[in-house]
Specification:
The complex is a heterodimer of chains A (about 375) and B (about 250). Chain A has about 375 residues and is mostly helical. Chain A is about 75% helix and about 0% strand. Chain A has 2 domains: about 280 residues, ABC transporter involved in vitamin B12 uptake, BtuC (Orthogonal Bundle); about 80 residues, no CATH class. Chain A is globular and about 70 Å long. With about 250 residues, chain B is of the alpha/beta class. Chain B starts with a strand and ends with a helix. Classes of the chains: A mainly alpha (about 375), B alpha/beta (about 250). The complex binds adenosine-5'-triphosphate and magnesium ion. The site of adenosine-5'-triphosphate (ATP) has 11 residues of chain B, from strand 2 and helix 1.
Chain lengths: ~375, ~250
């Protein structure tokens, strides 16, 4: 059993690595293989994997995780400004600083459970949004957002090389490799694989089991000898750090950070992704990310002209009606579609897409078994 | 006199004007099964909650293993070796039977908090073996990968007992272990209680059902209107006229 287990971990990681790194290849028939979108998949994948460690394993529903996205982004941009355009310090500091903030927010919010916990995280989200938007303007540059400038100190860069003064804005890099285009995607993909590996280890560890047990019956856990709060705070910090990493990677793709990243709706989006894919499962959140980001990409690009084109096989009057009916759901109205989709999943498939797959698989294997029985009887 | 595990001295507890516990003195001896019986509202659950540190008494002292339990948190009490079975079975309904018993075994070995993610649960061979053994002792080893939520109440109770026993508590507290159970389940639970009695574990059983009490207890204390009115062996208690009266006149 022991050896089997080890091998299956390795197997899962190997498959996962191949699937992620070959995304540019197998997504090309879907027209989703351009680096920008791929990078978005990977970044939100990290965010959702981390969020699932808290929400999926412990059942604590946080509406505050956009805080850590924001903290990660601002920290990364400051690292670009003060230290270097190299992305390593940016993501390291972004992740660590998000972890510190998560420790504070988690420590306070986890004094309560259930809906009161959710409300506390929501209150924190609002506070941090306002801090970023106005109070801490010297640090965040308020509503304009924080950007890099040609005149930034970048002490490390200047220390190790003669930075060409003048010219345009520098771009993010990893020891000379530019972080735009496919190299940017592969860098993010490696981090996604690492994030998935950590999540896999947590799911298989006694620590992960204890988190699931807290979700199942916290009262019993306490009387079984566990101090549950440090477990919850640890899970909160880990998920906050994943969010911080995701946030700093957003700044890597585009070195600017704005307060809107901290809006609670951004936290709501990760909740949707996790539930849509399958909360508490290892792969579910990634599926959720893939589905939502892919559809967002398609739906938000559609406008009335493309709709007219799409329905051009219909007679003119029907074409016009269809466009009127459908257009609220595309382009800017994409969130309307998302909301509908979410309702359908929660009502008919509360376990998310993963549960749907499981159901189909069960039906399939059951049919097979019945066939076998029949054959045996003959 | 043999060594005492739990020593309750001069405990008083009032709720508003109501005297729920009056001058309680009790010694629980090591290796004995001590039953506390009494009519509804006698103060049994209140006494139990004082023992596990959940309720703070107005006066008095509760020493477990010569350590004060008053004001301690639930997990600290458990880590001291004082383990409790609830009135309604409390288990992890979304987890498998095996996981349900592994969790308390891990608590016993690793303490109240441990962060270690790079070791798989599947590699915890010792814990796993212990868990399978205890499930075998309650006849559930063939169901160990099933989810525990769908079991009957009697099975849940037996699983909960297994979860407590795997921790080898110094003192096991059972609050009405057969309450609300069908006859068949009650008998099975009595069998299990008798079996663990042979293991020499110290236990306090709070119970309504006389049948259960007389079949498993070494010593019985009778509580009525917050006072201990008699303590003795089952035979002594059976023949005690004060007890008869309290049970007939003191109830409802
Ligand atoms: N938290 C509380 N606040 C006020 N009064 C309480 C509280 N807990 C118990 N009481 C009262 O104290 C008395 C003893 O209650 P307790 O629950 O200990 O009785 P019991 O012997 O366990 O009864 P039962 O057999 O019904 O479980 C009762 O009169 C009860 O109403
Ligand atoms: Mg009671």
């Amino acid at each position: 059993m022991k050896i089997e287990k080890k091998r299956s971990d390795l197997f899962i990681m190997a498959i996962f690595t191949i699937v992620i790194l070959s995304m540019p290849v197998w997504l090309s028939p879907l027209g989703a293989n351009y680096p920008d979108l791929l990078q978005k998949f990977a970044i939100f994948g990290i965010f959702a994997i981390g969020y699932n460690i808290l929400f999926g394993l412990t059942g604590y529903l946080s509406f505050g995780h956009a805080i850590f996205i924001g903290v990660g982004s601002y920290t990364a941009v400051w690292s670009f400004k003060l230290l270097s355009m190299n992305v390593l310090p940016a993501i390291v500091f972004g992740t660590l600083f998000a972890g510190i903030i998560a420790a504070l927010v988690g420590y306070v919010s986890l004094r309560r459970s259930g809906i009161y916990f959710s409300i506390l995280t929501l209150a924190f989200a609002q506070m941090f949004y306002n801090l970023a938007y106005s109070v801490l303007t010297p640090l965040t540059n308020g509503e304009t957002g924080l950007t890099i400038a040609a005149g930034d100190p970048r002490v490390l860069d200047r220390l190790f090389s003669d930075v060409a003064t003048g010219g345009g804005l520098p771009s993010t890099e990893l020891f000379g490799i530019s972080m735009s285009g496919y190299s940017g995607f592969y860098f993010t993909a490696v981090l996604l694989i690492l994030a998935f590996f950590i999540s896999l280890k947590i799911f298989n560890s006694p620590f992960g089991l204890k988190l699931k047990a807290i979700k199942s019956n916290q009262h019993r856990m306490k009387y079984t000898g566990y101090n549950t709060r440090p477990y919850l705070v640890t899970a909160f910090i880990i998920s906050g750090m994943f969010a911080g990493l995701a946030g700093s990677l957003m700044a890597v793709t585009d070195p600017l950070a704005g307060a809107e990243r901290m809006q609670w709706t951004a936290s709501g989006e990760v909740v949707l992704m996790t539930i849509l894919g399958g909360v508490g499962t290892l792969y579910g959140p990634l599926l959720g990310v893939a589905i939502i980001k892919y559809l967002e990409n398609i739906f938000s690009a559609v406008n009335e002209a493309t709709l007219h084109g799409f329905f051009s096989f219909l007679p003119q009057w029907l074409n016009d009606t269809m466009v009127v009916v459908v257009s609220p759901f595309v382009g800017e109205g994409w969130h309307l579609t998302l909301g509908l989709m979410f309702m359908i999943v929660v009502i008919f498939l509360p376990g998310g897409v993963t549960e749907g797959f499981q159901k189909i698989k069960n039906r399939f294997t059951k049919n097979k078994e019945q066939e076998k029985l029949k054959q045996g009887g003959e | 006199m043999s060594e005492s595990v739990l020593k309750i001295s001069n405990v008083n507890k009032t709720f508003g004007g109501l005297k729920a516990l009056t001058d309680i003195n009790l010694n629980i001896e090591k290796g004995k099964v001590h039953a506390i019986i009494g009519p509804n509202g006698a103060g049994k659950s209140t006494l139990l909650n004082v023992i596990i540190g959940l309720l703070e008494p107005d006066t008095g002292e509760v020493l477990f293993d010569n350590k004060d339990v008053i004001g301690k948190q639930a997990h600290e009490i458990n880590q001291m070796g004082l383990v409790r079975v609830f009135q309604t079975p409390e288990i992890f309904t979304d987890l498998s039977l095996l996981e349900n018993v592994m969790i308390p075994a891990l608590a016993k070995r690793d303490g109240s908090f441990k962060f270690k993610i790079f070791r798989d649960l599947a590699d915890e061979k010792d814990i796993m073996n212990e868990a399978v053994d205890i499930l075998a002792s309650i006849g559930m080893e063939d169901k160990m990968h099933n989810m525990s939520g769908s079991m009957s109440r009697g099975d849940k109770r037996r699983l909960e007992l297994a979860m407590c026993l795997i921790q080898h508590p110094k003192l096991l507290l059972l609050d009405e272990p057969t309450a609300g159970m069908a006859r068949h389940d009650t008998n099975q639970t009595i069998e299990l209680l008798k079996k663990i009695k042979e293991g020499g574990m110290t236990k306090i059983i709070i119970e309504h059902d006389m049948h259960v009490v007389f079949s498993v207890a070494d010593t019985i204390s009778v509580l009525a209107r917050g006072k201990i009115i008699a303590t003795g062996t089952p035979d002594e208690i059976k023949g005690n006229p004060i007890v008869q009266e309290a049970y007939l006149g003191g109830g409802e």
